[in-house]
What we know:
single chain; alpha/beta; Arc Repressor Mutant, subunit A; D-Maltodextrin-Binding Protein, domain 2; 3 domains; nine-stranded mixed β-sheet; two-stranded antiparallel sheet; 11 strands; 47% helix; disordered N terminus; disordered C terminus
Amino acid sequence: MIMQFDPSLFGNLRTFDIAARALSFTKAAEMLNITQSAVSQQIRHLETRLGYPLFVRHRGRLSLTQHGQSLFNTCSRAFQEIERTLTRLGDKDSVLQVSCLPSFALEWLMPRLPDFHRENPGLVVRLQAEFPHALSNQAIREGNVDAAIRLDPRDREESDAKPILDEYLFPVATPEYLARHPEFASGRSLRGITLLHDAMPWEGAPEFIEWSTWLKLKRPDWLSELDGIRFNLGSLAIRAAQNHQGVAMARTALVGEEIRSGRLVNVFNCHVLSPARYVLLSGHSDDPDFHRFTQWLRQECQRFDRSRALWLTAKSGASPTGTPTP
């Protein structure tokens, strides 16, 4: 059905969106500062125009029909996008809301953002730290977020998730901790070692997934001793390692500076490809501000990839270490 443009249609759709959200004509009238009968009239006019009912009128309550639910989903996204655009156009500076895993935000993205802001005056990136379960595609589409950076397992394929950076895993500890545990440092024994774990690096991650991935490839004989202390953030496990509390399985994005400074040691100079990688999600890929941020982010990821190739394989200057038997 081809519909001729009617100036009243936009207003009726906005009224429908609010009434569908509240499931009440009375509450919609209060929010719009009009009468309840005016809301009912606009909904009836819209239903007549469309040719099908949008609400089921029960005694004292409303529910959406199948068509009504479908239209509400579309209207909700459209009006949220309009509001975001108007807010951005009304600001002196353009603002991008970027949601990100807390550890990646703290250790990798935040230290680099000042460079982005110097290169892109008038465009402000606001970081919002979120745990993995909050970084779903639906949350991004429905929330006030322009983009999100998530750690996804490599076998997860989603059209909205664009890979930006591979990850590698390797055990890290302080030189002092290794000096106190020479048998572990030389690759002979795991006895007396406290393993430090990120309990949930991504949504639905199996228990001990990062340590088990490294051990299966490098020390399968140590798998029976896979246990230790669990943290709900990767950066907390790294901090515990920095405080000489054990050995953490590091992701490269979280420990680059610590490795270069010698505060942490790549224990066996032996890394494996992580089963997960960082991806970028967004519902606003045609936005020029988002495009500028995406281009910069990819360039930073490429620069980091080149630099880590140098320090990832550099020999450690810590106390005696050995290469574990593959």
